[in-house]
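Hi R.,

As promised, here are both runs. First protein below:
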Amino acid sequence: MKLKNRILPFCQAIPQLLKFQAISLLVLAPVTLGVSLLCSLLLGLSGKAAVASGDLGFLFTHWQGYVMILLTLLMVLCYVAVELNALVIYCSRLLDGDSPSVWRCIKEGFAGLRKYLSLRGLVIVIYAAILAPILGLGFSISLTSTFYIPRFIMSVIQATPLFMTGYIIVMALLLIVALVYCFILHGALTDGMTMKEASVNSRKLVAKNWKNFLFEVICYSVLSLLAAALIVLVFFLPLFIVQLIPMAESVLNFLNVFFSLLLTVAVLFTMLVTVSFVIIKLTMLYKKYASEGEWTYEKREKKRHPVMITVTALVVVLCIVLSISGTTFFDILFPSKIDAEIIGHRAGGVEAPENTVKGIDVAYELGAKGCEIDIQRTSDGYYVVNHDADFERVAGVSKKPSEMTLSEVKELSVDGEPVPTLEEMLDASKDKVILFVELKGETADEQMADDAVRIIKEKGMQDQAVLISLKLDVLEYIEQKYPEMQTGYLAFISFGQIEDTPFDYLALEEEIATDDTIAAVHAKGKKLIVWTVNDEDDIEEFLTSEADAIITDSVKLSAQTKERLMNRKPYEIILQKTLSLLK
């Protein structure tokens, strides 16, 4: 097939797909807002500000939690009805040469939800809402498009060969299943099949045409990557060229902001049509295979699209207006200074044996302002520093700290370094770094809280130590009994106004540390830390955000990245700032 014929259906569908996206937003935005407000009201009735990873039991032990779960499921179904069902129906009719009504397709999309009243239907919803975003393949919904396996879980998987092997096998199997059953919605929604019939039909179509199917999938993937790269290049090129032309600083700043905004719009456009293009391609293949190769795309007559032209013109005008404002308030909008600090994960991260005194020293030498450590209680009541449930990974002993005495623990070593006590880590960090002490594991209880506070006070380090934990009840106990102590709540899932929780620090996993959340936390006079930030792109993203600090294993890389960011050129600052609007 000629290249022109491959890309023509997508190009001609763009105006209609953008129209679909706009109307979908009008339908789903009120749903999302309404569910959010209702959940906030339910949390308020229960006396809670938020439900986070340390208190998920609330959802299954209170009537408010059950209602929140039900509302969330209904919201997911709304997204499935609009962004999957209606879009499949819309694309199918579009490719047949019709001019389908978006509203009618959405209505039929909601009616199609009855097709999901089966085990297969439930599996499809789970796949679209959770697995597809993680895999980055096939049908998905925008509500959960940012889902991924949390970094702290992936780090454990990657560090364990058995887990990594299992992960690769599971991902491969999910990928195969996704490909084999990729036509299930087409059969169910456009040809009136049951989910069972549609799944059998999809499997047969893929099996019968597997060579052509794989060829088409590969071609589509390659062309998609090339198209995305071309779009970025076309819009980035002017930004690069203006750096080479001598001109007044104000003019250069204006052009930098203008072209950065245009590039951001281009990237946003690409993101908007990505899922729609996937469904367009699968719909074309379904029609071709189901008709035994008799179906072909018929070129549509060229039409003027005054709405698109008007919207494009308005976007350009808006970019000009924003560029003028950006130039006028350049230093305020695009500061070059990086205020976010670096905190070593498990003392010094990968730069030294984890959770050791040496880690504190190395992190301090590299410029870290803080170190995070994990404490657990021994059988004779002392507090030693270790992350895992036992010492198997770091010291080759499969015993828990709670099963050993302090003297037994002191016989162990981590890459040649002794396992330290809390007291030793406090001594090592005093007047150097702030020590974030995580109350960890099965011994993280009120006794640990009492003892940790006592030890910190004996060292005179109340202002240089922060007690943190994933366990909400332990932190609430500290806040009530020891309000003078600094506390920090670790969370990797959050619903509601987490900024209203009564802690000095909120340490949030990357996905939930959004700009809005950071602003809300600061508005309450609290500090926000992002964990665990290890990849260079993520380090750059959060160092240039409004976050107060990042917790990282890559202390050296973070320090180098921070130094580089402090010396960015103006266009780099602008580009990073404008592209962050997409997140």
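And here is the second one, sequence first, then its structure tokens:
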Amino acid sequence: MKTFRTRLTIILMSLIGISMLAAGLTMAQLFRDSHIRALEENMSREIDLLQSTFQFKPVDSNETEEYYSEQSRKIEKLIDSRVTFIALDGTVIGDSEMLPFGMDNHLQRKEIISATQGDIGSSIRYSESIRENMLYVAKHVTSEDKSFDGYIRLSMSLRTVERDLNKGWLMMVGGLLLLFLAAALVSYRISKGLTKPLEHITVVANRISRLDYDARVQLSRRDEIGQLGLAINRMAGSLQEQMKVIRDNEDLLQSVLTNMVGGILMVEADGRVALMNREAEDFLHVKQEKFIGKSCLELKRNHDFQQFMAEGIDTKEYLKEERNVYDPEQRTLQFERVPMFEDDGKYRGMLFLLQDVTEIRRLETMRSQFVANVSHELKTPIAAVKGFAETLLAGGVEDKETERSFLQIIYDEGDRLNRLIGDILDLSKIESKLIPLEYSPIQLKELINRIYEVLLPTASRKSITMSNHVPEHLFLEGDEDRLRQIFMNLLSNAISYTLEGGRIKVEAEIVNAADDHEEERVRISVSDTGIGIPKKDLPRIFERFYRVDKARSRSSGGTGLGLSIVKHLVDLHHGTIMVESRVGEGTTFIVELPITQNLA
């Protein structure tokens, strides 16, 4: 690789050489042009002299060609130039070197054309007869007695001019060689003076790159190179300060990681463990010194967590789940994996978080059990109230209309409370994962049709049109009862919140996997033309007992737990649910479920 000094020397020499070559070419061209111009002027004067001294004879005489040819040869010996006499029509009547009758008409020759216009005509062209470049000068001549009216042309070889030009080229080449030698020496000295401080700056920059932040550039110059040296020194000082800040922040971060309650484990894109805090060591019963830089698959102490990490590295997806481990007593650990991507989308690795939620889950279990027990105890008196209401509705009251109205309310409330308790029990079981799912292949269109048969009377009372656009061939793997519960709740809500004459539609399509690690999924959408949900309420509609329109919810018999149950059942099937809605236009619930369930 050429150094900067060498390249600079070559550049300077090239600039000087190009300048000298351009100057030489310009001088050679000027020399040639000026010499030819002098010859033209001299030959023009000779033609003028011939015009005033030559004894012309009439052109139409019998001895014209012989006379003018003989005179041309005499004149050539005197002026050392070829002489040609040309009639006004371009016919050659005399030439000092060739016989006139064998020569072409010269009227279209460049020099004759110029002479015809009243000027001195001249041209340079290659002569085939003597194989040299020739200079031709012609002039229109009329004798005093009008016996000759035509052109006199003189021509001479440019051999002498070209010989002098070649000598000039030799002298110029020799001068250029000497100048090149001098330019090489001067260029090298100039390059050395310019590059020596740059080489010193480069040495200092290399020391800084090797973390030697005490290195400084020692230059006293005030030009741009001196400014560069000062900039390098300021950069070194700034880096020194920044490295101190980085080390302080690193110590602070390490202190935070060490004292965090939860465990943190970071795995790089190649599967090697990059970071592990003290809590992660306690959870996994390992020492970070033994595993930093090694494959995460070597962490075989906890099989559940190892499986969770392997799945995360394969799928590169975010997931948070809880698993019961025995270590040695039963504990509930919350595993969370977060894929790390850079700004350009490049995969960086996975961050795994471990949290002991045993106590939290124990309290939640106690609360769920309490709700279940209370609901179970309330069911008996509610059933009794319902029974009395049925008895009273059968008769025995004098004010029949009023009594029946109140009893109907009692009956409806009892029925609603009964459903509420049932939903609470279902939700409690789902949240505590006490409901085992029995997976089997399900034809989705047939499932929706059976739900339509149940809900059709209710929809008909409101003149609601229900359509099923699920393909016949679409199957998925899931628990049929729970899937029926999901879509029963969604379609019941759609009927309840759709005005008379509205439409409800169910559609389904296959969603192709984004990459080989993702499973194929089916997207089912339940759309209605109902009243819609305000945008501010959308994030909370899956909360328990949350109602957008409380009056309408109660009048329709809703318990406020349907969508919460749907959300938990979709999660149990490893799916997702989303909602899109506009007030006054309708609502669409979108459920995505894997076509096949991973039962490993």
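A quick note on the second one: The first strand starts at residue 82 and ends at 87. Let me know what you think.

Best,
J.
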